[in-house]
Amino acid sequence: MGAYEFIAPCHFGLEAVLKAEIMKLGYEIVRTEDGKVTFAGDESAFARANVFLRTAERVLWKVGEFTAETFEELFDRTAEIPWEEFIPADGKFWVTKATSVKSKLFSTSDIQSIMKKAIVERLKKKYRISWFPETGNEYPIRVSVIKDVFLLGIDTSGESLHKRGYRKLVGKAPISETLAAALISLTPWNESRILVDPFCGSGTIPIEAAMIGRNIAPGVSRAFRAEQYRERLSEDLWKRAREEARDGERHDGALTIQGYDIDRDAISIARQNAAAAGVADDIHFQVRAVKELRHPKKYGFLITNPPYGERLEDRKDLPELYRQIGEAYRGLDSWSMFLITSYEEAEKYLGRKADRNRKIYNGMIKTYFYQFLGPKPPKQPAQGRAEGDAGSDQGSGEKR
After folding, report:
1. Quick one: pLDDT at residue 317?
2. pLDDT over threshold 50, residue 395
3. What is the pLDDT of residues 73-105, one digit of tens each?
4. Residue-averaged pLDDT of the chain
5. Contact criterion met (CB below 8 Å) for 299 and 333
6. Which secondary-structure segment (H or E) carries 361?
7. Pairing outcome for strands 336-341 and 301-304
8. What CA–CA distance (Å, rounded) separates 363 from 14?
9. pLDDT digits over 193-211, tens only?
10. 369, 357 contact by CB (below 8 A)
């Protein structure tokens, strides 16, 4: 087991996707719970987890876990943690966020205040000082309380990991980058296959797909809070992680990724975001309504986040919209469709029951990831494959 433990929060329902990502990086899974995965790693995990993880919301450096049912217990258990091993004498620290579920201590503001006092008292004794200048690096602490069990971590990411840096502009009700990447990972799509998002908005699903297809690490071009922890983490640690990411990128071959939307302004935004992400040449964006969706090739993928009430002023428009989606899909020979929505009557108006259905929480909204599986394409010869028909479908859920 590594010398450090980390907590990676994620969308509820996507823990298995994140777990697979962490294992692929070579780190040991300690525990998987609703909305988070705890893992162990060496010093490299501070940098590599932040740079490479596509579906984590942030990476927390785990500092403690205990049970407390009273504020006195909370103070004492917090003060028992060796905070001096995590926070230097000039460090700026605060409990930036606390959540409490099914616990006797439910006032998050009181939890934050009492924990801050306990940490201060501990560090006063250890550093033999009466006040803290807090002129050094920032060490924001996040606390999760479930059934009286407190889980504490220092945020190493800074801004949430969904902020890759490319989305300078957004359209209405955008899907987050982390959720988009997770949805793509739940499908058999790979870079040799066609992908179309007919409700692309500001382009997040096509852009995340292109980044996956090119193996562009999501955090390679942004900064992280823990980069400032020079007293513990060398600058070379982050340099090596970014070099590893750059060396792993694939820029040969063509991708067939398309994004459509009826909103002309959204398409303009999507093009700008794709350029910022470095994948503008890999995606074709076009103003097009879903009822006009056609494609001449077989075995493609629709992966999309259509409106489900939050983006329409009147929910009475939803039945007709989902009928149009269903009609468009029926016109695509041998395609698969993956659609996330909170609209409870989606299958009724799509005109077909999904082959699979996965419940995912998009923030506080319960959504369903409907999966309509088309046939697998026939294997092609090593040379002369038809464009978009190519080969390996590891983990494919498509029908045989």
Report:
1. 87
2. no
3. 999 999 999 999 999 999 999 999 999 999 999
4. 92
5. no
6. strand 356-362
7. parallel
8. 12
9. 999 999 999 999 999 999 9
10. yes
3-state secondary structure of 260: strand
- At 41-51, the pLDDT tens digits run 999 999 999 99
- DSSP code per residue over 292-336: G---SSSS-EEEE----STT-S-GGGHHHHHHHHHHHHHTSTT-E
C-alpha pair distances (Å), 156 with each of 94, 221, 223, 250: 14, 16, 11, 28
CA distance 275 to 207: 9
First to last CA, the chain: 40
Pick from 311, 310, 308, 301: which is nearest to 347 by CA?
Answer: 308
Give the C-alpha separation, 337 to 271, whole Å.
24
**Domains of the chain from N-terminus onward:** 4-155 (3.30.2130.30), 177-215+234-372 (3.40.50.150)
Phi-psi region of 215 (alpha: psi -120 to 50; beta: other; left: phi over 0): left
The pLDDT of residue 382 is 58
Report which residue type is found at 175: I
Whole-angstrom CA distances from 174 to 167, 305, 385 are 10, 9, 36
Instruction: Check: CB of residue 188 under 8 Å from CB of residue 395.
Output: yes
The CA-atom distances, in angstroms, between 251 and each of 151, 247, 380 are 41, 11, 22
Residues contacting 34, CB < 8 A, separation 6+? 12, 15
User: What confidence score (pLDDT) does residue 386 get?
Assistant: 39
Count CA atoms closer than 13 A to 81's CA, side-chain side.
24
Where helices occur in the chain by DSSP H, the ranges are 15-24, 44-52, 71-80, 108-127, 177-185, 204-213, 235-247, 264-277, 318-330, 346-350
Whether the per-residue pLDDT at 335 is higher than 80: the answer is yes
pLDDT for the residue numbered 52: 98
289-306 mean pLDDT? 95
C-alpha distance from residue 56 to each of 23, 138, 208 (Å): 13, 21, 14
The 3 state secondary structure assigned to 106-130 is CCHHHHHHHHHHHHHHHHHHHHCCC
d(CA 347, CA 300): 20
How many CB atoms are closer than 10 A to CB 67? 13
* pLDDT surpasses 50 at 1: no
